[in-house]
UniProtKB/TrEMBL annotation:
Lineage: Bacteria, Pseudomonadati, Pseudomonadota, Betaproteobacteria, Nitrosomonadales
Entry-linked Pfam families: Phosphonate-bd (PF12974)
Protein's organism: Gallionella capsiferriformans (strain ES-2) (Gallionella ferruginea capsiferriformans (strain ES-2))
Matching Gene3D superfamilies: Periplasmic binding protein-like II
Protein name: Phosphonate ABC transporter, periplasmic phosphonate-binding protein
Amino acid sequence: MKIIFRLILTCWLLLISSVLLATPLRLGITSATVRGQYALLEEWRDYLQRKLDRPVEFIFRESYLESLELLKQNELDFAWVSSPAYFENSRQMSLLVTPLYQGQPFDRSYLIVPSSNHASQSLLDLKNKVFAYVDPDSSTGYLHPRYQLLQQHQNPEHFFKKTFFTRDHQKIVAAVAIGMADAGAMSGFAWDSLARSRPDITNQTRIVTRSAPYGFPPFIARNSLSRSDFNDMQRVLISMNQDPDGIKLLQRLNLDGFIVADRKLYQGVYKMMRRIGDL
């Protein structure tokens, strides 16, 4: 009996050692995608480690640009980035997976104002106001409102009295709710997710408009990553909605799963970038 126990213990220790000694897979996350759910991300990391049978590190950065730079320098293996950030670098990066929200691989841009503002009915009603953006590389929190202004023959550089970046979709809601900004643009997914957990905050804002759907911010990988590492991570993410623990994590992330998407999904973002001159 003691011999069997020792064999089991030895095998277990060898298994743990092999996992600990394996090179970690590094995944970049930004403030815009974290939404303050650090405990949840730790559980997600642990889940990925179990499924991949190797260490996983989440590397946090303030902006999409910082994550992209780390990918280019081979200091990250994967990153969850904005749609424009992916499209600008699609020749250097590979599309890993796209999240599903409400069954579709899409997000929308929400234009929000304080709930006390009953007058504003469109972006044009906000001329000479203080406006909050998320990140220069955000489609929903930056690109879309600027594109809409250009479509209305307005200059985005001079339309608002003042603009600033929050680097975080939830902070757009807070900035508008407390009056730091008169309005802001953000991810509809982020607003909807916050409304589930903190309706006391979102109730202090009002959605003025919802945009057409755009490709959901994807997970990308550096081109130099080995095919086996790419396939392993892709497989684990795609199969999350078929696994009880994965389903629980997806529910808390407010996502339905992940799919292998095509670059064509991001044509709407490409169109906006061409119009604005970012490409």
